[in-house]
């Protein structure tokens, strides 16, 4: 197990509230959320598939649907 270090940061209160809500909705702590993000940064392992919401959505769309097709679908769906 690696050593943990306390960190003090200053962020806008609105972002802190939003991050706490996000952590709560995803059954994690703010510390773990930040730690995992920093780990991803350090290992350059940040991809679209690593976010909790996208992990939950995996498999919903057929693999042959492109990002552009999905964006077009959403644009059409919510424009009118």
Backbone structural class:
mainly alpha
Biggest beta-sheet profile: none
| Fraction of helical residues | 55-70%
Content of β-strand: under 5%
Write down the domain tally.
1
Spell the H/E element sequence: HHHH
Question: Would you identify the regions where 5 or more consecutive residues have pLDDT less than 50?
Answer: none
Spatial extent as radius of gyration: 17 Å
Separation, N- and C-terminal Cα atoms: 53 Å
Number of helices: 4
Question: What coarse outline follows from CA principal-axis ratios?
Answer: elongated
Number of strands: 0
Average pLDDT value? 80
3D architecture notes:
- With 80 residues, the chain is an all-alpha fold.
- It has one domain (13-79).
- The chain contains four helices and no strands.
- The chain is elongated and about 45 Å long.
- The model has no long low-confidence stretch (mean pLDDT 80).
Secondary structure elements and their pairing?
Layout: H1 13-25, H2 30-43, H3 52-57, H4 67-79
């Amino acid at each position: 197990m690696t050593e943990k270090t306390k960190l003090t940061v200053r962020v806008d209160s609105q972002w802190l509230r939003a991050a706490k809500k996000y952590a709560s909705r995803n059954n994690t702590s703010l510390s773990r959320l930040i730690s995992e993000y920093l780990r991803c940064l350090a290992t350059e392992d940040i991809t679209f598939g690593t976010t909790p919401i996208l992990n939950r959505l995996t498999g919903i769309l057929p693999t042959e649907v492109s990002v552009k097709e999905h964006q077009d679908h959403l644009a059409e769906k919510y424009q009118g």
